[in-house]
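Give me structure tokens for this 84-residue protein.
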Amino acid sequence: MQDYYNMNQTTMSIALDYIPEENHPARYINTLVESLKIDYNYQFGRPHEYDLAAMLKLVLLAYTYGIFSSRRIEKFARENKPAG
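Here you go.
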């Protein structure tokens, strides 16, 4: 909790260097997906907006929490630091 609270504060400091705990499922999933060395070269059409390895990490992490709906996975990614 902050010692100094100001209602007229215009900025908010947010730590962006979040690292999950040592035994967090996100660390294990990251290690697994990075060991796969996913390298997909696009041959037809336009390239995807997102990295395929990052999307696989997100889906696997959501599945470990029992989230299977694509809409709920999107919400999960927006609201959780390890998923983002």
